């Protein structure tokens, strides 16, 4: 594989997922330690010390990169696990650390100046001044752009950014306030920002009633599913709620972001990397999505103006998309 001008960054929630991503064409994988330092702290996911060492070796032997997600916010006086995670990242030879908290950035820049730092999407930097701030004070080399901008806004940020910009290409969407999930905290007392989990499994309740299959987080009713209707994992932002007498997806619909359609525009704008979401998904999902996006990026870079989205790509991605639906999300917001 030649070094691409657009890196494909894929999720690795486990060692098998990491190998699936590498084997199917990822340029980089991102992963987390098995604790609350990353935003996907689910049981059975993430990496032990031995697994992360093997994963780095597997990737580096094939000239691929490994990024470490430390994208949660430590509580006051409790940043020890996060600082130790940075120490471990430096020891293990991680290629970049994805951070959101400025205090951790300061620690990383001061103690481990050789570590390459990426600003996480949880940092919520949506404009040039914010990105420049993190670059000036902490030396970040890349920023992951939150999924709240229209395509025209994203293009403008990429054009003037002092650092590389990584954009999301495919995967689940959450509410349009990246990294600030108050909804999950309201219902369960835990959120991705503090405990690494959105809608933790211990809070999930499924109940069959005469009316429907009901999904709750503790006592909060999230959704009711009729016979034959596909039931998704209950998250507050994607529940159906009664608003002024109408029951619908009032906050966010269960659909996956898919930017294959605008890939040439992202490349032309100068995006340095495209990220696939889904560290909680299976190795089979990672393999399938990585394979499609590898083919699409290679075609886009080789064919220039002749690039078209192939039907089989969309079919393959829709089969694993949330709710079997895809959207351009905020990239396509005509009022912006």
Automatic annotation (TrEMBL):
The keyword Nucleotide-binding does not apply. [4Fe-4S] cluster binds at residues 174, 181, 198, 237. Signal peptide: none annotated. Keywords: 4Fe-4S, Iron, Iron-sulfur, Metal-binding, Ubiquinone biosynthesis. Pathway: Cofactor biosynthesis; ubiquinone biosynthesis. Belongs to the peptidase U32 family. UbiU subfamily. Forms a heterodimer with UbiV. This is Ubiquinone biosynthesis protein UbiU. The gene is ubiU.
């Amino acid at each position: 594989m030649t070094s691409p001008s657009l890196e494909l960054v894929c999720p690795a929630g486990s060692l098998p997922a990491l190998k699936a991503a590498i084997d199917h064409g990822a340029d980089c994988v991102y992963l987390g330690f098995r604790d609350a330092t990353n935003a996907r702290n689910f049981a059975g996911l993430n990496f032990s010390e031995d697994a992360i060492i093997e994963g780095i070796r597997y990737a580096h032997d094939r000239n691929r990169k490994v990024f470490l997600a430390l994208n949660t916010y430590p509580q006051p006086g409790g940043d020890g696990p996060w600082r130790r995670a940075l120490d471990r990242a430096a020891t293990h030879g991680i290629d970049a650390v994805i951070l959101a908290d400025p205090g951790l950035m300061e620690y990383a820049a001061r103690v481990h100046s050789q570590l390459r730092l990426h600003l996480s999407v949880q940092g919520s930097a949506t404009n040039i001044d914010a990105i420049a701030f993190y670059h000036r004070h902490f030396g970040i080399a890349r920023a992951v752009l939150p999924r709240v901008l229209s395509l025209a806004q994203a293009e403008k940020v990429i054009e003037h950014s002092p650092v590389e910009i990584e954009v999301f290409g495919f995967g689940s969407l959450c509410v349009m306030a990246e990294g600030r999930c108050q909804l999950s905290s309201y219902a369960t007392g835990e959120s991705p920002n503090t405990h690494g989990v959105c809608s933790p499994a211990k809070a999930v309740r499924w109940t069959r009633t005469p009316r429907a299959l009901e999904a709750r987080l503790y006592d909060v009713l999230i959704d009711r599913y009729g016979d034959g209707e596909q039931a998704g994992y209950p998250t507050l932002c994607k529940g159906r709620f009664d608003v002024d007498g109408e029951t619908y997806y009032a906050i966010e619909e269960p659909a996956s972001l898919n930017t294959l359609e605008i890939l040439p525009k992202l490349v032309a704008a100068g995006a340095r990397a495209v990220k696939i979401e889904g560290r909680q998904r299976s190795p089979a999902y990672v393999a399938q999505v990585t394979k499609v996006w590898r083919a699409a990026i290679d075609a886009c870079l080789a064919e220039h103006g002749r690039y078209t989205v192939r039907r089989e790509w969309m079919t393959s991605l829709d089969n694993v998309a949330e709710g079997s639906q895809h959207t351009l999300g905020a990239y396509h917001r005509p009022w912006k």
